[in-house]
Amino acid sequence: MLSTLAVLKWGHIVAMVYWLGGEWGVFQTSYNVVNRSLPMEERRRHMETAYRIDILARTGILLLFPLGWHMGYFWGVQPFGGAAITGVWVFFALWLALCWAAFLKRETDTGIMLTIWDERIRYLIIPAIIIAAVASLLGYGPFNAGTGQKWYSIKIMLFGGALIIGLLLRFIMREWTVMFRILAEGENAEVEDRLEKSIRFGRNLAYLYWITILTIAFFGATKPF
To answer: How does DSSP classify residue 147?
Structure first.
């Protein structure tokens, strides 16, 4: 019989695939976004493609936590079931709705404002989950971190680190929207230089991002500690 845990595992794998694959797609598309030899309209089409790929990666990221939280209860590595599981799912569903609203309104001032609110939520979530993970590894909870259970807290800690990198990449993509508004008014060498510098920084972050994502997947699959 198909179990809830099996369905959650499937969802977790799919979310991880979209996260990792989506970031690779944005990375490759960025080369044409900053290519000055291309017409501006062509560059804008590549930027639009990057946004459409990125929303799937963002969706995967936000789904990973409630899926992992739910599975963690079944595995006995986190003790919060029932209402706590429901609350986490509701919170992340609302956060995902905000993320999609920001995507749909991305070319407007409203979209930029919604993106900023999306980022502000991360300012609260990131330190909360990292502190909880570290505290659990030190034996203070809230997660169970006995023999054979530490992998969960390590994974949560790394996920928090990945969210920090993702937040920096969100800043970069928000800059794209602002800078392309200026470039649409005509050539601007200063803005072009800023755009190229921004994307170079983003590409360097992307390498660290992929390593972190793969490490998270390793701990989830092998559960070594």
So the answer is: T
Under 8 Å between Cβ of 160 and 129: yes
Q: What is the pLDDT of residues 16-74, one digit of tens each?
A: 999 888 888 888 888 888 888 888 888 889 888 988 998 999 999 999 999 999 999 99
Tokens standing for residue 218: 């390793």
Task: Write out the two tokens for 174.
Answer: 């928000």
- 45 C-beta neighbours (distance < 10 Å), count: 15
Rounded Cα–Cα distance for residues 106 and 112 (Å): 6
Number of Cα atoms under 13 Å in the Cβ half of residue 211: 7
- Alpha carbon distances (Å) from 100 to 46, 58, 104, 118: 19, 9, 6, 10
Strand (E) or helix (H) holding 126: helix 109-137
Question: Where along the chain do its domains lie?
Answer: 4-222
